Amino acid sequence: MTQSIPIPRYDVAAQTRTTRLPADLIEAAEAHGRREHRSAAKQIEHWARFGQYFEGLSTAARVRIQRVVAGEVAVEQLDEDERQVANAQITARISAAANESSFADRLAASGVTTVGLDDRGRMVRRHPDGSTTHL
C-alpha cells in the first residue's frame, strides 16, 4: 500500500510535488521525524538528501560499502560508520523488494493455490488461474 506525500523541490518558489511512497516508509518517517522534530515530509527529504550526498561520493569507503551490499565482501571489512550505511542500504533494498513482490503471485505462477485476505478482509482461496473462492 502506498500513500502520497508532498516532497519539497528546491527552486526559487520552493514548490512541492506529490509522489507516491510505500506506506511503511511514510510511517517510519513520521515516527523518526517526531524524535527529530521534523514532519514526515522533512524527514524523507533529510533521508533523500543524505542518500543523494552518499551517491555523489566516489571514495574507497563507498566502494567498500557497495561491495558489501552486493555480497562480494564480508561486512567485517567495514568500520562502524560504514556498517551503519551498508545496513541502511540493505534494509532499504529489502523493504523495496518486499513492497514490490507478492509471494502469493510467485506461488500462483508455480501452480500453487494459496489462501489469504481479499481487499475487504475476507478469507479467500486464490487459484493459479487468478480466480478466487470465498471461504
Structural description of this entry:
The protein is of the alpha+beta class and 135 residues long. The chain has 2 domains: 2-100, Arc Repressor Mutant (Orthogonal Bundle), CATH 1.10.1220; 103-134, no CATH class. 51% of the residues lie in helices and 19% in strands. The strands form 2 sheets. A 3-stranded antiparallel β-sheet has the order 3-4-5, covered by helices on one side. The protein has a two-stranded antiparallel ribbon with strand order 1-2. Helix 1 (23-36) packs across helix 2 (40-56) and helix 3 (60-69) crosses helix 4. The two termini are 24 Å apart.
Task: Note the topology.
Blueprint: E1 2-8, E2 16-22, H1 23-36, H2 40-56, H3 60-69, H4 80-100, H5 103-109, E3 114-117, E4 123-126, E5 132-134
Antiparallel strand pairs: 1-2, 3-4, 4-5
Helix pairs in contact: 1-2, 3-4
Summarize the structure.
The chain is of the alpha+beta class. The protein has helices spanning 23-36, 40-56, 60-69, 80-100, 103-109; strands at residues 2-8, 16-22, 114-117, 123-126, 132-134.
Alpha-beta classification: alpha+beta
Considering DSSP H and I runs of 4 or more, what fraction of the residues is helical?
40-55%
Our estimate of the beta-strand percent is 15-25%
Low-confidence stretches: none
- Number of structural units classed as domains: 2
Radius of gyration based on Cα positions: 20 Å
In which order are the strands of the major sheet placed?
A: 3-4-5
Whole-number average pLDDT?
82
Q: What coarse outline follows from CA principal-axis ratios?
A: flat
Class of the largest domain in CATH? Mainly Alpha
Number of strands: 5
Q: For the terminal residues, how far apart are their CA atoms?
A: 24 Å
CATH architecture of the largest domain: Orthogonal Bundle
CATH topology of the largest domain: Arc Repressor Mutant
Q: How would a crystallographer describe the biggest sheet?
A: 3 strands, antiparallel
